[in-house]
TrEMBL record:
Residues covered by the ABC-2 type transporter transmembrane domain: 9-204
GO cellular component: membrane
Pfam families: ABC2_membrane (PF01061)
Protein name per Swiss-Prot or TrEMBL: ABC-2 type transporter transmembrane domain-containing protein
Residues annotated as transmembrane: 18-36, 42-66, 87-108, 128-155, 167-186, 213-235
Record localization: Membrane
Keywords from the named record: Membrane, Transmembrane, Transmembrane helix
Length: 251
C-alpha cells in the first residue's frame, strides 16, 4: 500500500492540473463573499463557504475519475494493468482517494478568505467534528469517482456524462435548495444520499450544538460505506468482464 501512496504522490507532482480545485474555488469565493458583503448578508458566509467546498469536492472527484484512467490509457499501461485486476483495483482505489482528498484544504481556504479578506463572521463552533464530517464526505465523493472510473474503463465517451453528474447531484445533496423543499420522490432519494447528510452535518457543526449527532454520524458512515462498496463492486465486475472477453477494452 505504501508503494501505491508513493506512486500517487509522484504522479501528483508531475500533474499540477490535479490541484486546479485548490486554485479555482478560492477565486470563485471572491465573487461569493463580495456579493454577501455588498448586500449585508454576512450571516450566510459560513454556509456559503461550506457549500462551495462541497461543490468543489464533488466536481473534483467526478472529474478526477476519468483523469486517473485516462492517464493510464495515455501512458499505455491500462491494458497491462488489467492483467492483474486485484492489484489494479487497489491501486485505482488508492489513487482516486488520494487525489480526491486534495479538495479537503478548500474548506480551510474558504474560511480564511471569508474571514481575513472580507472580514465576514465565519464561525465554526465544532472544528473537530467539522473536519471529521468533511473527511467522511471526501471519502464518499472518492467512492463516487471510483464508480465513475469503472465506466471510464468501458466507454471512452463516458466523459460526456460527467456534466450530468454535477448539478443534479448538487440538488440532491441540498447544496442548491434545502432537501425539505424538493418534490416528494426527489426528497426520498436525497435522504438516501450521503452528500445531503454530510452537508447538513457540516452546517450544524459550524453553527453550534448538533442534535442527534451519534445517529446522524452513523447514518453518514453507513451511506459512505455503501457508496464505497458499490464502487469497488462495479470496478471489480468491469475488470472481470474485460478479462473474460465479454467486454472489449477501449484503448
Amino acid at each position: 500500500m505504501l508503494h501505491f501512496v508513493r506512486a500517487q504522490a509522484q504522479m501528483l507532482i508531475r500533474s499540477p492540473q490535479l490541484f486546479a480545485t485548490l486554485l479555482v474555488i478560492p477565486f470563485y469565493s471572491l465573487v461569493f463573499f463580495h456579493f454577501l458583503k455588498s448586500h449585508h448578508h454576512g450571516g450566510l458566509a459560513t454556509t456559503t463557504a461550506i457549500t462551495a467546498f462541497l461543490m468543489g469536492a464533488w466536481s473534483h472527484a467526478v472529474f478526477v475519475a476519468s483523469q486517473t484512467v485516462d492517464d493510464d490509457r495515455a501512458q499505455g499501461t491500462l491494458s497491462l494493468s488489467l492483467l492483474t485486476p486485484s492489484r489494479y483495483l487497489l491501486a485505482l482505489a488508492m489513487r482516486t482517494l488520494l487525489t480526491a482528498s486534495l479538495a479537503l484544504p478548500v474548506l480551510g481556504e474558504m474560511f480564511l478568505v471569508g474571514r481575513w479578506v472580507f472580514g465576514l463572521p465565519i464561525r465554526v463552533d465544532r472544528p473537530g467534528l467539522t473536519l471529521l464530517v468533511a473527511a467522511l464526505v471526501t471519502a464518499g465523493v472518492a467512492a463516487t469517482a471510483l464508480l465513475m472510473s469503472g465506466l471510464m474503463i468501458l466507454v471512452r465517451a463516458a466523459r460526456s456524462l460527467q456534466n450530468a453528474l454535477t448539478y443534479p447531484f448538487y440538488l440532491l445533496g441540498g447544496l442548491i435548495l434545502p432537501v425539505a423543499t424538493l418534490p416528494g420522490p426527489l426528497r426520498w432519494i436525497a435522504r438516501g444520499f450521503f452528500l445531503s447528510w454530510g452537508a447538513q452535518l457540516l452546517r450544524d457543526a459550524a453553527a453550534g450544538p448538533v442534535p442527534d449527532l451519534g445517529v446522524r454520524l452513523t447514518v453518514l458512515c453507513v451511506l459512505v460505506g455503501l457508496q464505497a462498496a458499490v464502487g469497488l463492486w462495479a470496478v471489480r465486475r468491469v475488470l472481470s468482464f474485460v478479462r473474460t472477453g465479454r467486454v472489449v477494452l477501449h484503448d
